[in-house]
Fold this protein.
Amino acid sequence: MLCGIRRLSSMDRTLTVLHVNLYHPTLGPAAFTSVPQQLQHDTSPLLVGRGHGAHLQLQLPQLSRCHLSLEPYLEKGNTVMAFCLKVLSRKSCVWVNGLPLRYLEQVPLGASNKISFSNIQMVVRIEGGTSLEAFTCLFHLSPSPLIYRPRAEETDEWESIFQEEPPVALGESIPGLLGFSHGPSQTCTAVSCQALEEEQK
């Protein structure tokens, strides 16, 4: 029995682990009552939103049923699973490491990432593993803010930010983030949430 436990633990350590810290400024932990401590997922995109089809359900009315996805992929010539974030909501933008993204835009994730959307603050730290068949998410609720940023970013007023700084093209290399051998749109699996989004109109 003990040998079996050791063997299982050794297999678990080979999985890529996403350490996900969550914070909401007004609701606190009450915003994340449906979030499990741990979630193991296959190589399909992990959906985040308030809909029943989301793998990570957040019961907040301002969220879309399918708000964003974390999408694993394998770069050409690499043996380690990488991730990109794709915006699936038409309602508002998602901020990733200071970069505002709109509907269907996506960006590669680095080792540590600061993500904010609809008052939710999320920090995702990627701990690489050798398995290419699945990955694990470990969720932690933070009692204090994870991201300190300008007020304009908090209120999703991304238009003025775009005028000050030109956006980075999706196929270009973004400083501080994991590089792509191809553009994100070519390497990430497409996710269709059209039916869910149509219900929000």
Observations:
- The chain has five helices and twelve strands.
- Residues 110 and 178 are 5 Å apart (CA to CA).
